[in-house]
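Progress against Task 2.4 (sequence-to-structure conversion) is shown through the following example record, which the project officer requested during the mid-term review.
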Amino acid sequence: MRRWMGASLLVVALGAMSNLALIFVPDLVSRHVTVPVVWCTAVATVVIAVLYLVEQAYAARRRVEREAELERVRLLDELRKYRGIEWVSADREHRNASLDIWKSARQQVVVFGFGMTSVARDPDLIRAMAQRGADVDVVKVDPEWLVEHPAIAATIDGYYDRDGSFIGQVLRAHEKLLALAEEINARGSGRLTVHTYRTTVQCSGSIRDPGTPAASGYVEFHLYRKFIERLGIGLAQYDGGDELDPPILRHVLHSLALAVGHPVPAERRARPLGRDEEARALGEEAGLPEHSG
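Structure tokens generated for the chain above:
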């Protein structure tokens, strides 16, 4: 390309010199020759100028793509170095991080914590996800286990400095979530699955689209007294890593699976067929045409 551009510039230079010669020495050649020469030189100059601009545009595009690729490689190296940690915050600097994950999820959201009372107080958020065809997996403590261990409940009451009975709040939240799951799952779009564990945790968070390249999440570690300090980290999935040094996002999901005793998130189920789709499917199985007269 550079050789071609050099030759083109030489043509333009020769054309300009010829035009100057014809201007200052008009009687050198006849008018029948000078007019075509001038026009040809002008057209060649315009064509070469356009091609030059196109070449510069392509070169600029290649530079932008190259810079974007270098930035992508740099970010990927950082993710691998920090095992997928994108940011760290203290207290409530990123209090909207969890909500952003819910809004950007395309297939599935895993939300986990202890009592999940705040999630139970916002059923419209879960309904909106289900209406979009996305599944929601809620991972929380088993309230029956908590009732059987009142000393643990009392300890957690003190840890979080709560007002009122924590056990009562967890029981009511659990009942709301189960009723909401029955309502949502009966519609046959997105599903709500409630998982329970029989232990204690001092962390919570949300993960969107687990198992996909776009997976990302937010994990919040509760330091002493909930309303005094929270330590949050933003996580992203990345290529690479191994079983001994996996992305933290995968490690979080594995830890949840160990707590509840089965894989988390739940396997996505196929969307139920509508009436027309079901009729077509039955017709194909029977070898019948889709429409009969």
